[in-house]
Amino acid sequence: MKLLFQLFLQFFHVGVFSFGGGYATLPFLYAISEKFHWYSVKQLTDMLAISSITPGPVGVNVATFAGFATSGILGALVATTAVILPSFIIVTIVYNVLDKFQTNRYVKGAIRGIKPAGCALLSAVGIRLLFTSNLHLLGTLLFLFFIILSFFKKRDPLFILGFSALVGLGLGYFNWIGV
Prior knowledge:
Elements: H1 2-17, H2 26-36, H3 41-53, H4 58-101, H5 105-132, H6 137-152, H7 157-176
């Protein structure tokens, strides 16, 4: 029971402080991995990969996988509930007071401050993933190609994801057969 309570507290903390979307949860998830050893960095990387291709928000999916890795189905339910509960509470409060504070300069200032914090969290995740993943030259070149392409041509992200998946499958196949 103590483990589930600790799991709840850690993922509630993730839900409270990770502004900027699901990938912004990753610095907190790395910290949990290092502090509690409930899952390894390799497992977290795998969880992120699976969460990126499954339906739903990445942060919630990773919390579910991490909770499951820690304490089975009950851990998954606890971690998922804990990570979404802060957003639920905040949205409920904001909805009820939005009309009163919509033009408040302090609220506008807070929102202006949250945006760079979210960008910083996402940048930290990108840098961490860069240094903890096994880089493949062709994969890295493909990644850079699509970043450059996105500045000049607007492509559907599904096209980029699908093409990258096919290249990854091809590389995996050729690596598997020893070519």
